Amino acid sequence: MYDDIAYNSENPEPGVIRNEPNGTNVYEGVPIDYTGEDVRKDVFLDVIQGHAENVKYIGSKRVVLSTNKDNIFIFHTGLGGHDGYVEFPDSGEDTDLHGEELVSTFKKLHNRNRYKNILMYLESSHSAAMFDNHTLPHNINVLAISAGGPDEDTWGTWCDTNIEPCLAGLFSYAWMNYAENNPDGLRKSQSVFDHFDNVRDIVAHTGKEHPQLYGDWNIGKLPISQFIGYESRNSTSLETEIKLISGVSKHYTFDKDTIIKGDVTAADEHVPIEQKTNIMQSILNNIVELIIPNERIRNTILKREPIDMHQNQCFDDLLSLFNAKCINPQKDDNVKNRQEKFNMLAKLCDVDVMSIQQMTAAEAIEKICT
């Protein structure tokens, strides 16, 4: 990683990086082998090919010394282009890694028996263009998953125009958050395909990106824990007992490349300004606290995607009651407020919420707004 965020002068929390509001510090304790100008295309290719001689004077000097018994996981996030390439930080003229060059490297490694299987997650605008033209063969034991289609931009999530940067990429947050919030049994045994299907549904639901699969689909049948690891949490918490399938809430998103390139004006065209303090949100929060008093469970539930609002009697009833008791819909002309209201009320109709609620949503609305 380039490593210019944690101690950036504009970071309000030096040494801290979060990928969601009030989240943990995801920077602390992370080993970083190559930073700054050492994050280059040639270094990346040398590292995955095990060319220790080429990197002996930079970074940690570590390279991948794998055999035909090793599964390899590669996650790359950054900028990309229509022509099928991803960009590395500006460190000279040759900064773009094209799909053909990456696949050629995979073929060399395969011929040298330097891996068993490779699973690659790629997050960039037009990420699928890296492999869309049959670039990646089906017979070299490589499966690539792109954040979106060849003509799709990559979007950031947990965005706030008051501080400008987004806290995470939409795709990367979705797959990491989903993997982390699975019950222990599923974390260990879930196949790459099943993990992909759930993440694809979460991301595609936003209408921003549509993840794609390329390469050897046989790898999709393997447990994803063989690539990203598995550590039991030894937990019997309610998060696992309610069999949560966590998703990205319908918070606002920015075009990721637009944010990285610093064009905040362009981003503003996509996203209304976040209003940190508003009456609507305060009312909704108070209602939810009455329904689910346990903060840990409440926060877990609220990360989920809302149920389909259309043709759902529970949602229709709650919306009518909320509009009658809490907010005059004729004065509710803030798009952000309306969307927050719809999402929250829809989540309160989730079957898992109904099974653990302290009081019904209707009772909570009556209590708060009367």
TrEMBL record:
Gene Ontology BP, a term: proteolysis involved in protein catabolic process
GO cellular component: vacuole
InterPro entries from the UniProt entry: Legumain_prodom_sf, Peptidase_C13
Endpoints of the signal sequence: none
A GO MF label: cysteine-type endopeptidase activity
Family statement: Belongs to the peptidase C13 family.
The protein's name in its UniProt record: Legumain
Protein source organism: Schizaphis graminum
